[in-house]
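Predict structure. Chain length: 340.
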Amino acid sequence: MAEQTLPATGREWHLAARPNGWPVPEDFALVEAPVQAPGAGQIVVRNEFLSVDPYMRGRMNDVKSYVPPFRLGAVMDGGAVGRVVASEAEGFAVGDAVLHGLGWREYATLDAAKSVKVDASLPLQSYLGVLGMTGLTAYAGLLEVGGFKPGDAVFVSGAAGAVGSMVGQIAKLRGASLVVGSAGSDEKVRRLTEDFGFDAAFDYKNGPVAEQLAKVAPEGIDIYFDNVGGEHLEAAIGALKLKGRAVLCGAIAQYNDTNPPIGPRNLALAIGKRLRLEGMLVGDHYGLQPQFVAEVGEWLREGKLVVEDTVVDGFENTADAFLGMLHGANTGKMLVRLNG
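Prediction complete.
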C-alpha cells in the first residue's frame, strides 16, 4: 500500500466544558495529539475543510439523543473532507479525496469503509454543503417528508442558512407557486430575494413573525420547513392551509435556552386543519442519495443553483466559526478551511 511520512502530532479540538446556555470559547480546548499510523483497512486523511453545524450544540449536553453526546476532554467529530496521506486499504491511494465524519482535527485515522471517495474535479467543500448532508437534508425534507407538489406555497425559516437557502431554491425549481423565507438581518433578506430567488422574505426581528408572514403569504402556506422552532413554528401553524405539512428539521432558537421552551400555543389548530408535523433526520433518507446527486448535480452544472458558503480560514478558528454559526454570522454553509 501507499505510504507517506506522517507528522508525529496534529491539532484537534476537545470539549473542555459542557455549556450552560450559549457556548463560550472556554468550553473548547485546542490540543496537540499523536497522529496514528493506519492499521489494516485504514487510511489517514489530512482534512482540508471541516463542517460546523447546529446539531453539534445538542451533542455538547450530557443527555440521551439520536447521537451520543461529545465526551468531556475528548476530541469532537463532524463532517470533513480531505486527502488521503497514508493508506493500508485496498482501493484508497495517497491523494484520493474522501468525505468522512472525523472533523474537528487536522489528521484523521479511520477505517476506509467509513469514508467515501469523492470526485475531486468538483470543489471539495461542496461535499459538506450542496452535495453533502446539507443538500440532502433540504432535498429529502422538502420532497419526501414534506410531500412537496408543484404549486405548493412554501415558507422556510432560517432561510439564509445552509439548509434553508437550498430548500427555497429546490422548491422554486420544482414548481412552487410561492416561496417565502425569514432571516435575521436586512442584508440576508435582500439576498434571499435577489440572489436565491425567493418570492418574498422578511426580517423576523422587525416584528411578530405571524404578522409578517401574513403580509407575504396572505393566502396561507402548504409547507413549512422549520429550522428555528418557537415563534416561527407557532406562526406557521396559524398560516398552514388545510392538510398542510410542517417539516421539523431544527429548532436553533431553542438550542441554548436554559429554561424549557414554550411550545406553540395554537397546536390545537392542527386538529381541525388536519395538519401533519413530522420531524426528520437526514440519516433516514440516504436511500435518496443517487436521485439527489443526479438531480442537484445537474442543476449545479446548469448554473440553476446559487451556492454560497461562509468560509473561515484557519483550523485554530474552528471554535469561533462554530460560535459564529450559532449567532447567525453565516450565509449558507459555515465551513472551516485548514491552512497549509
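Summary: Residues 133-145 form the longest helix (13 residues).
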